[in-house]
Amino acid sequence: MATATEADAMRRAIALAARALGATSPNPVVGCVILSPEGTPLGEGRHRRAGGPHAEVEALAAASAAGHDVRGGTAVVTLEPCNHTGRTGPCAQALIDAGIARVVYAVADPTDTATGGAATLAAAGVTTEGGLLADEAAAGNAAWLTSVRLGRPFVLWKYAATLDGRSAAADGTSRWITSAASRADVHRLRAEADAVVVGSGTLRADDPHLAVRGHDGAVQPLRVVVDTHASVRPGARVLDDAAPTLIATGKDADTGHLPGVDVVRLPRTRTGLDIDALLAELYGRGVRSVLLEGGPALAGSFLAAGAVDRVVGYLAPALLGAGPAALGDAGVGTIAAALRLEVTDVARLGPDLRITAVPTASATAPEEN
Ligand code: AOF
Ligand code: ZN
């Protein structure tokens, strides 16, 4: 059984890992705390960038830099220590070499490449225990774990709407439906994502910038415009150099007005571009988490393709009564086909409500009672 001290250390390791969200792809976020045999923290670390040291190695180095002897100590880590030599050496072996006597981890490594660390540690006589605060640690790594399971990036669809579900007024005006607190929260979502995706309609209507502001040191996400006919104007703000940008167009689009712009040509469907092909292209570029920022038609296409893993709605206490809905056609024609969600969080941001929900396993209607 893990001790209360180890649980505290795991909470700290999860918090350390969370600081690197949006910066480590295609790798996970991982945090680690090294404890002395008496339970005193000796060093801590996190994985900061793909190609950089793993969390365990950074924590061992921090302990050693502080002059601590870690022999006989415990490593508390959010992900099972890796067993492979990839861009860096195997962490299981590094822990064994350092004389660590016990390893407590939260979530097993699900990859074929890195799995097996716990067995290697156990074979070397290190006590190992998995599963401590596994749900919390998995939630902190939800994007990466989902991308490993599905072989495509994790997709979070974010929208802002009035209480009656409209994302713009009848005349098309839509600026600042939600409060400054909600808009700041969206910048956090962008900072945590590898790519931010919008459709060309939103680009025309709002000329959004899509780069992250207010998060020092955040890795800027790849800005992706789904633009079947390459309608983006050369002066659009999304084309500046604040962050990289990718324009996804149909195979036949004329992109002559976009010299020097990174363009990918994708197959078309009846409603626009093939969402699976887009996600495969992004995955190939190392993107493991996508923030889908609209508009309504594109969000409908993603939902119809079964390609939304989490929904975050910012609802402002305002009513419009007319104007476009936050979500367009998602392939739902009858109530039995409604895309059912489970609410996982409700928060108040200034005057607004933020509702987080995930699709339920089956799209059937709940039982009446
Ligand atoms: C990390 N950071 O702290 C741990 C990881 O690309 P590599 O060679 O660095 O290996 C990445 C894999 O190593 C990763 O997918 C995961 O399975 C495992 N553990 N990875 O990036 C870490 N502990
Ligand atoms: Zn490792």
TrEMBL record:
<dbReference type="InterPro" id="IPR011549">
    <property type="entry name" value="RibD_C"/>
</dbReference>
<dbReference type="GO" id="GO:0008270">
    <property type="term" value="F:zinc ion binding"/>
</dbReference>
<feature type="binding site">
    <location>
        <position position="190"/>
    </location>
    <ligand>
        <name>substrate</name>
    </ligand>
</feature>
<feature type="binding site">
    <location>
        <position position="176"/>
    </location>
    <ligand>
        <name>NADP(+)</name>
    </ligand>
</feature>
<keyword id="KW-0560">Oxidoreductase</keyword>
<feature type="binding site">
    <location>
        <position position="54"/>
    </location>
    <ligand>
        <name>Zn(2+)</name>
    </ligand>
</feature>
<protein>
    <recommendedName>
        <fullName>Riboflavin biosynthesis protein RibD</fullName>
        <ecNumber>3.5.4.26</ecNumber>
        <ecNumber>1.1.1.193</ecNumber>
    </recommendedName>
</protein>
<feature type="binding site">
    <location>
        <begin position="295"/>
        <end position="301"/>
    </location>
    <ligand>
        <name>NADP(+)</name>
    </ligand>
</feature>
<comment type="function">
    <text>Converts 2,5-diamino-6-(ribosylamino)-4(3h)-pyrimidinone 5'-phosphate into 5-amino-6-(ribosylamino)-2,4(1h,3h)-pyrimidinedione 5'-phosphate.</text>
</comment>
<keyword id="KW-0521">NADP</keyword>
<feature type="binding site">
    <location>
        <position position="174"/>
    </location>
    <ligand>
        <name>substrate</name>
    </ligand>
</feature>
<dbReference type="InterPro" id="IPR016193">
    <property type="entry name" value="Cytidine_deaminase-like"/>
</dbReference>
<feature type="binding site">
    <location>
        <position position="91"/>
    </location>
    <ligand>
        <name>Zn(2+)</name>
    </ligand>
</feature>
<dbReference type="GO" id="GO:0050661">
    <property type="term" value="F:NADP binding"/>
</dbReference>
<feature type="binding site">
    <location>
        <position position="228"/>
    </location>
    <ligand>
        <name>NADP(+)</name>
    </ligand>
</feature>
<dbReference type="InterPro" id="IPR002125">
    <property type="entry name" value="CMP_dCMP_dom"/>
</dbReference>
<keyword id="KW-0686">Riboflavin biosynthesis</keyword>
<dbReference type="InterPro" id="IPR002734">
    <property type="entry name" value="RibDG_C"/>
</dbReference>
<comment type="similarity">
    <text>In the N-terminal section; belongs to the cytidine and deoxycytidylate deaminase family.</text>
</comment>
<comment type="pathway">
    <text>Cofactor biosynthesis; riboflavin biosynthesis; 5-amino-6-(D-ribitylamino)uracil from GTP: step 2/4.</text>
</comment>
<feature type="binding site">
    <location>
        <position position="293"/>
    </location>
    <ligand>
        <name>substrate</name>
    </ligand>
</feature>
<dbReference type="InterPro" id="IPR016192">
    <property type="entry name" value="APOBEC/CMP_deaminase_Zn-bd"/>
</dbReference>
<dbReference type="InterPro" id="IPR024072">
    <property type="entry name" value="DHFR-like_dom_sf"/>
</dbReference>
<dbReference type="GO" id="GO:0008703">
    <property type="term" value="F:5-amino-6-(5-phosphoribosylamino)uracil reductase activity"/>
</dbReference>
<dbReference type="GO" id="GO:0009231">
    <property type="term" value="P:riboflavin biosynthetic process"/>
</dbReference>
<dbReference type="GO" id="GO:0008835">
    <property type="term" value="F:diaminohydroxyphosphoribosylaminopyrimidine deaminase activity"/>
</dbReference>
<feature type="binding site">
    <location>
        <position position="210"/>
    </location>
    <ligand>
        <name>substrate</name>
    </ligand>
</feature>
<keyword id="KW-0479">Metal-binding</keyword>
<feature type="binding site">
    <location>
        <position position="206"/>
    </location>
    <ligand>
        <name>substrate</name>
    </ligand>
</feature>
<keyword id="KW-0511">Multifunctional enzyme</keyword>
<dbReference type="InterPro" id="IPR004794">
    <property type="entry name" value="Eubact_RibD"/>
</dbReference>
<keyword id="KW-0378">Hydrolase</keyword>
<comment type="pathway">
    <text>Cofactor biosynthesis; riboflavin biosynthesis; 5-amino-6-(D-ribitylamino)uracil from GTP: step 3/4.</text>
</comment>
<feature type="domain" description="CMP/dCMP-type deaminase">
    <location>
        <begin position="4"/>
        <end position="129"/>
    </location>
</feature>
<keyword id="KW-0862">Zinc</keyword>
<feature type="active site" description="Proton donor">
    <location>
        <position position="56"/>
    </location>
</feature>
<feature type="binding site">
    <location>
        <position position="82"/>
    </location>
    <ligand>
        <name>Zn(2+)</name>
    </ligand>
</feature>
<dbReference type="InterPro" id="IPR050765">
    <property type="entry name" value="Riboflavin_Biosynth_HTPR"/>
</dbReference>
<dbReference type="Pfam" id="PF00383">
    <property type="entry name" value="dCMP_cyt_deam_1"/>
</dbReference>
<comment type="similarity">
    <text>In the C-terminal section; belongs to the HTP reductase family.</text>
</comment>
<feature type="binding site">
    <location>
        <position position="160"/>
    </location>
    <ligand>
        <name>NADP(+)</name>
    </ligand>
</feature>
<feature type="binding site">
    <location>
        <position position="213"/>
    </location>
    <ligand>
        <name>substrate</name>
    </ligand>
</feature>
